[in-house]
Design brief:
mainly alpha, MetI-like fold, globular, membrane
Length: about 300
């Protein structure tokens, strides 16, 4: 008589899983990371933003408030009283009577517009050449361009003045404009934008018979217009705000730019900071208007350069 086999468990028992506690907070990505900070992170962010606003916007608001205050109001009170009790435009009228603001602003506008045009055109061409064209010594040329960024402007001030003087451009607006006709940083920015263009497209256009100017116009320029707006705005602000170089080159007060002309207010009205503040606001107003009008193009160009470059 056959004995029935004893039943044995043929299935392997599943391994027992150890109970796990809650994940550590620093391992939860997205919950306590940068995108969703905790209470301490939120407070830190707002504190930093408030500090940055106080350091950047605060001086401008103080200057604006001071320019609208009369001689009887205290401008050095603490905490600062940014709302004038009796607003007045007399300080702006004093500036207009003291210096030829319109003439100086016109000189600054001529230099700034010329600087924008030459930087956009020449920086686009140079950036394209450094990225897409093959020629001997390109690496050395790029190293020289980068090295100029390490030198402060005061180092080359004397040599630039001697060059401008030898060309017969001293005491002229052309002499003010010439050293900033193209800058290294703008060449590098346009080269970064041009690097995002596939080389195969440029090679195909060359095979089809497109000249260098045609490739620049129909392929390169449509892809670098965003960065060109950044270059244009930065070039305008740099030329408009430049003070030291026009002060060195220009000796005739009738040819002063606005920033150099405003320096006269410090000497004539050093004891009246209200008039000096009014002159500062007048000099800043065109830059503020330009940036407000072109901020969309500026940030769009920065974003395109950051993503593509």
């Amino acid at each position: 008589m056959a004995h029935a086999p004893t039943s044995t468990s043929t299935s392997s028992q599943a391994p027992r899983r150890r109970p796990t506690g809650p994940e550590r907070p620093w391992r939860r990505r997205g919950e306590t990371g940068f995108n969703k900070p905790g209470l301490a992170g939120v407070l830190t962010r707002y504190a930093l933003m408030i500090l940055i606003m106080v350091l950047t916007v605060g001086p401008f608001l103080w200057q604006l408030s001071t320019s609208l205050k009369g001689p009887m109001e205290d401008i050095y009170s603490f905490p600062p009283d940014l709302v004038p009790n009796d607003p007045t435009l007399a300080n702006y009228g004093e500036v207009m009577r003291t210096i030829p603001v319109i003439s100086y602003a016109w000189h600054s506008l001529l230099v700034s517009v010329a600087t924008v045009i030459t930087n956009v055109v020449f920086a686009t061409m140079a950036g394209y050449a450094l990225v897409a064209m093959r020629f001997r010594g390109k690496g050395v040329l790029m190293a020289l361009i980068l090295s100029t960024l390490l030198l402060p402007g005061e180092v080359t001030l004397t040599s630039q003045y001697l060059t401008v003087k030898s060309l017969g451009l001293a005491n002229t607006l052309a002499g003010v404009f010439l050293p900033t006709a193209i800058t290294s940083i703008n060449v590098l920015l346009m080269a970064t934008a041009a690097r995002a263009i596939p080389q195969a497209i440029l090679d195909a256009a060359a095979i089809d018979g497109a000249s260098t100017l045609q490739r620049l116009r129909h392929i390169v320029w449509p892809n670098v217009r965003g960065m060109a707006s950044v270059v244009a705005l930065m070039s305008f602000i740099q030329a408009w705000d430049d003070f030291l170089w026009p002060l060195v080159v220009l000796s005739d007060p009738a040819k002063y730019t606005l920033t150099v002309g405003m320096q006269y207010l410090n000497s004539a009205f050093g004891s009246n900071p209200r008039v000096v503040a009014a002159g500062t606001i007048i000099a800043l107003t065109p830059v503020i208007i330009l940036f407000v009008a072109a901020q969309k193009q500026f940030f769009r160009g920065v974003e395109a350069g950051g993503v593509k470059g």
